[in-house]
Structure formats: C-alpha cells, structure tokens
Design brief:
three-stranded antiparallel β-sheet; 9 strands
Length: 150
C-alpha cells in the first residue's frame, strides 16, 4: 500500500501548531496539502484526533466525501467536495486544539484516507467509529502530527 504525502505550510510533522488554529485562538483549520492519492480512490476522508485527551481520543475534525483528485485545502476552508461532520465539541467542522492547561504537549494526528468506496458515518462519529468505517475501504493513507500545549 503506497502512502499519501500529507503536510502543512504552517507546521512541520511533530512541530507545534500556532495558537491561531487552537480553540482559544481564531479556531481556524490549518492549511493542508496532499499528493499520492490512488487513481482508483472513490473519496478521501480526513480525521484530526487527539489521542492524549483525558477522556479518551477526541475528534477535532472529520470530513468525508473529499474529492480524491484534490490536492489540499486552505486555512479555514472545507476540503473540495467534503462534508464536515460534528466534532468532539458537538460542533460541525474544525474544533482546534484545547488541551488542559499545564499538560504536556498533546499530539494532534491528522490522517487522510483514500477509500475504495464511500464510507457511511453517523453525523456525530467518535474517532474509533471513523477508524472502523475506513479500515476495510482504505487504499492508502497519510499522517501529519502537530503538537499543542497551553
């Protein structure tokens, strides 16, 4: 399985995410670019999750139905063709990093999946439901990790 190259012009892999993108900042989704999506992909699915959250893995951004021929998304925008689902804050769209004050830096894992067929998710899926839905349809994926602490 080949991988998707996923990156951001605003932070390097395992680098710190600027406050602008955090929940207490402007709460704007960061820009992302990608390449290497397989030609036979039916859709892309984007998940940003925090596995370090005190209550368990927290979903910050879930976007389904992204055009598999797209190459990225600008800050504060919805990926081409995508539909944003409800995040862990109970809000539709991006919900930026917001770890408890004083915690070590949390890891914000952005995963972009290329799927062989569209996946069906509830409107307010948990991160584990996204993983389960994409698991059997995944052709390839890419990961980018950002760090944030308050």
């Amino acid at each position: 399985m080949t991988g998707i190259d996923l990156s951001s012009s605003e932070f390097k892999d395992h680098g710190f995410i600027a406050r602008r993108y955090a929940y207490e900042g402007d709460n704007v989704s960061p820009p992302l670019t990608w390449s290497g999506s397989p030609d036979d992909a039916a859709e892309l699915v984007l998940l940003c999750e925090d596995p370090d959250a005190p209550s368990g893995t927290f979903a910050h951004w879930i976007v389904v139905g992204i055009d598999p021929r797209s190459e990225g998304v600008n800050a504060g925008q919805i990926p081409p063709g995508g539909t944003e689902l409800v995040n862990g804050y109970g809000e539709r769209g991006w919900g930026g990093p917001h770890p408890p004050p004083g915690d070590e830096a949390h890891h914000y894992v952005f995963r972009l999946y290329a799927l062989s067929e569209p996946c069906v998710l509830p409107d307010e899926p948990r991160a584990d439901q996204v993983h389960e839905a994409v698991e059997k349809r995944e052709l390839s994926s890419g990961t980018l990790v950002g760090l944030y602490r308050r």
